[in-house]
Amino acid sequence: xxxxxxxxxxxxxxxxxxxxxxxxxxxxxxxxxxxxxxxxxxxxxxxxxxxxxxxxxxxxxxxxxxxxxxxxxxxxxxxxxxxxxxxxxxxxxxxxxxxxxxxxxxxxxxxxxxxxxxxxxxxxxxx
Length: 127
Fold this sequence. Notes:
Blueprint: H1 10-23, H2 28-47, E1 52-62, H3 66-75, E2 80-89, E3 92-102, H4 103-114, E4 119-126
Antiparallel strand pairs: 1-3, 1-4, 2-3
């Protein structure tokens, strides 16, 4: 099996160690493999979407990233039926977008958030 080296900061490593203990993974590599499998499955599901869809897009970010979120939001406003913004803890914000539109356009909006390093968490739920 090929070996891939990655660099992780102390915060992520600490979270991985907590997951290992709480979920019973045999080691850090198992957690990372599970995360990669999950990402691949989500991307396969997203790439198979077609036609007009309804979806919920959730983003978690820090307050300092608000302008980035606003910029992406304005680029895709034709998809957004409802937008909710909530402060959740400390300087963290959660954005919920109820979307309706062509799957490929929802995909672009989701990718715009997912590929931005300032976003802490991005999750698309197809309804």
